[in-house]
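[job 4471] stage=fold_predict status=RUNNING
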Amino acid sequence: MTGPPTTTAIPTGWRTRFDPRPALVRVRDSGIPIVQIVVAATGSYAFAHYVLGHPAPLLAATVTVGSLGLVRDARPRRVLETVLGMLVGILVAELLLIVTGSGWWQLALALGLTLVVSRFLSAQASFAIAAAIQSLIVMVIPATAPFLRLVDGIIGGIAALLVTALIPRNPLRDALREGRAVFAAVDRTSAALVQALRRGDRLRAERGLEKARALQPLLDEWRSSLESGRAIAKISPFLRRQRFDLERQDRIRESTELATRNLRVVARRVVYLCDDGTARPVSADVLAEIVRGAGFVSDSLDDISLEPAARAALVAVASRLDPAELMPDASLGDQNLVAAMRPLVVDLLTATGMPPGDARAAVPRI
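[job 4471] inference complete, writing structure tokens
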């Protein structure tokens, strides 16, 4: 008799550690890039093989895959630069095959020469690597006729540029996600500083300063997505409606980046003041109001109708930012903290679409 079937137990640690949600998010976010690569690679291969009669147009497919990729930055210029790098590698290898033939030392010569030429032509390391990979393929895989693979590479490059315009990625969605991530980080930073002021907690203030200093990478990602999206929207007939939203969001980003610099100044002053352990509820309340205004700016990223509400909230707090009137009996350090909040509010007001001159006039003269 045979016993009951045995089952392999899954370790408890594996069950608790594995979370499919990040993997599903990656797949969802890569949906359009995957479609782009599949359409471009198969289309360029089919055209080279069935229309032009090339027996094995491998490079027509590899150039599209290498130039499009799954990266966030898929602006046409970046795709074109990568395509040109690959074509340089193919051309150098094809010329060397005619002059020297194939072999191990010819392979080494082709790779070395390709890297030298590509580094001379472009400062981007990815340009040289793309060229070297295609050069290697040309040297290793034989061809029936010279320069046939160069034609395949050109076909692949054209296909990559076409799908960039005709099957565009959704730049506005990515930019919105990264813009909200910036404002969420600003909110966390400001919340730590507000709590530090309420409690006179220097340790919490230092944490807020650390958070403020960590904002720049998030801003850089936001800028990269917006630059990529605006470049794609210029050539894609399907993204013309998004041009205004991308431009408006870039204006918000520029003002927000200036605001984060002033937030770091505020954070340093909070750290200095909290050294005495004294609670500062008035300064905390003012900063909390500014944070609420920044939250309205975040909400307006994808809804322009919310900009007036954000502007009104920030103007209300800006009108109170006269250190001598707000806290007449406070020390010079406390008044300087309020003074440091003034440019922060001005930058947030310009993020709502207010002209810079009007934003500066919204705070009282001191």
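[job 4471] summary: The chain has 17 helices and no strands.
[job 4471] exit 0
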